Amino acid sequence: MAIRVGHTWLLYMPPGLRSGDVVLTFKVGANVNTDENWAKHAFCPSATISRREYAVLAKGVPTKEATAMKEGTALRALRRDNNTKSINKIRPLAHKKSVRAAVVLHLSSVNEAQALCRNGLVWNAMVYDCEPFDASIQYRQCFKCY
Which domains are assigned to the chain? Predict the structure, then answer.
């Protein structure tokens, strides 16, 4: 199913998933209602909207700073220092014994994620290297090797 206004395609809906979920993909720049209640009215009261996120891994952050990051205050400071509005979540990846840690940042804008990878993450007057992150390629260390 697709929705078209004039000569512009705004929405593409592929066939339903095996789980019964429905995926709606809107064209970039389409004027989409940001009110989340429309999904509850259109589908069912338990319907939710899941927005796409882009994960970026910041490397070399001191473990004390990474583990001390609190969602609210750290998000505001990171948004301000890096001139971005799209950082949604922060998740530190740190071992207790290590000196340096990595921090996963979830962003809603691909352009801002690319800018962080290009320019680095500014945190407490330091610049940390960033790279795209995908949890499916995260390595696991066995307990015998640890």
Answer: 2-42 (no CATH), 54-135 (3.30.70.330)
